[in-house]
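Session log. Operator J.P. requested a structure for one protein chain; no other inputs attached. Running the standard single-chain path with token output.
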Amino acid sequence: MAFDGVVISNLVYDLNEKLTGGRIYKIYQPEDDELLLVVKNERETYRLFLSASPSLPLAYLVSRKKENPMTAPNFCMLLRKHIQNGRILSIMQPRMERILDITVEHLNELGDVCQKHLLVEIMGKHSNIIFCDENYNILDSMKHISMLVSSVREVLPGREYVLPPNQGKCNPMTVTFQELEEQVCKKPVSCQKAVYTTLTGISPLLAAELCYEAGIDADTSTSALTQENVAQLYVSLQKLCQRMEKGEYTPLIVYEKGVPVEFSSVPLTSYVEQECQYFDSISEVLETYYAQKNQITKIRQKSSELRHIVTTAIERTARKLDLQQKQLADTQKRERYKIYGELINTYGYGVEPGAKSFTALNYYTNEEITIPLDATMSPMENAQKYFQKYNKLKRTYEALSVLTGETQAELDHLRSIKTSLDMALQESDLTDIKEELVEYGYMKRHNRGKKERSVKSKPLHFISSDGFHMYVGKNNFQNEELTFKVANTGDWWFHANDIPGSHVIVKKEQAQEIPDATFEEAARLAAYFSSGRTDSKVEVDYTTRGNLKKPNGAKPGFVIYHTNYSIIAVPDITGIEQVL
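Structure written below.
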């Protein structure tokens, strides 16, 4: 992600279209480092969210309201005193920096027309919101910065506002070819790094995109660049600047496997294999991107305890299974002891007393075999000893066969729960998973009251390109519900072959035949919502619901089938319509 100068330029363009001429109706300060300006303009109400959070500084138009404190902080009261009911004259971006300069016209106590500046600096941990008079003298700021904190500049009431130092960077809107050539080629770094450390407002993401458009490998050293390479790079930069001058922005979010990974205001042609979703405004991009990111982060944090429990149980069960399989492998020699005993009984009459071994014909293979003997025991006693070893190993084999099967089933169950955790998008999804862990003894129930087990969250719902309804279970309880209660005998069932994953049900309406495209889309869903999501291809089994059975005592979501088809699917659900 890159909240860079180009994104700010796009934001300034949109805000000027919507807010210029509007009146600041309300001013709120939801958090210590946040502001919310409610602006009314041409019968429309807009909410401008400004954040100087060191971890996530932002500025964009929001659609949702936010809780506000009962008592407004001092900075908020100062803004209300001066610019509430003021009119926004303009919104500017100084020299392509990550700064918003909002000019507000208002009436003072004497009724005279005055101007104020609200400057929003979006600069990581140095972010700030600064309130200045018409001459850029600081009236107050959200964060006070003295010379004890920063030797570069002070941000205190009474001081003159000074732009942050540009670190010797060039403005991309005015840079010449000669300046670009001299600045880029002098830096002994990669071409990508040379670009974003040379030009103001250009992030590493955009620098990589400029290199890609110029036909240059972003990791190429600047010493390897030819003058033609630099010329192509300059052409790419000029195209970007022309887009900004004309206001030709293309706000978008790049998704990889359904997860937002980047956003930008210009096309990212270097992301050829990823899905790009385009929006009408950069504010929609920012609100959508961070809402989805926050949701994923929030769910990850809330599921950390469950993940730890499941991961620990998987490791413990895997070690247990490995030990059982080794013990089971040791029982494979039991048949040899049985043969030894039988051959001693058959040919033992010819064995001399005190012999340590004897050779006999193995009538099972028609080959001679040498059998070790205990010299202190008679042939019959040796035979009895081998039969005892055989019987002991046979009992061990039978017991371990059952135990190994149970342990393998438990491991498969735990892995399916881990896959469900990876797919969880809502707190209700975690509730189902937690209940399953409690029910099968991996967690203790904190409240003593008996909790009724029910499916709290809903399965995912998709519509195929041919109009068929497709449902995807997000956890084992949902898989069970979908397959054995929602699906009818003639409906189609899909599941990734031999790996944990979701049950996918395609509802078949009466005698209607399902087209091949729907089969392919359902298989893609089954591949995507499985532990093979990151693979290039996944084998998917599919059959009708009537061919499925659940063994007695099996874990939720576990089924068996003997009649099925298989299809190789790509775990990509791009283009499949989801019903929200």
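Operator note: The CA atoms of residues 520 and 569 lie 7 Å apart.
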